[in-house]
Amino acid sequence: MDMREVLSWLKSIRVEKVLIEADSQIVVNAMNWNEDDFSSFGLVVDDRKLLRDSIMQCKIVFARRSANGVAHCLARAAISVSDQECWVSVPPPFISDVLLNDLI
After folding, report:
1. Which of 92, 90, 70, 89 is nearest to 81 (CA)?
2. β-bridge partners, 59
3. Whole-prediction pTM
4. Sign of torsion, CA 80 2 27 55?
5. What is the pLDDT, as a whole number, of residue 1?
6. Spatial distance between the Cα atoms of 92 and 87, rounded to a whole number of angstroms
7. What is the DSSP secondary-structure string of 10-73?
């Protein structure tokens, strides 16, 4: 999922404090870079930074894919889902085992 979609959704549900883990070191570095980047990639990143800055406390960190099994499992499940689904308080049952493993 694109960082823009994540940030737009978080903004729409009025999240004020969030930690986002991403498995792309390039994206994380770009989102945390404070210098201007006038390349086409930099312009895309600037758009996402504006959304990030609209959230009161938003931190974006790198997490190896192997350490983030829940995100991988959700992404795999999203391929087969035709409608949007949202779980805020209770995780979907199909990630319970993976979630426990990520916490250990």
Report:
1. 92
2. 19
3. 0.74
4. negative
5. 58
6. 7
7. HHHTT--EEEEEES-HHHHHHHH--S---SHHHHHHHHHHHHHHTSSEEEEEE--GGG-HHHHH
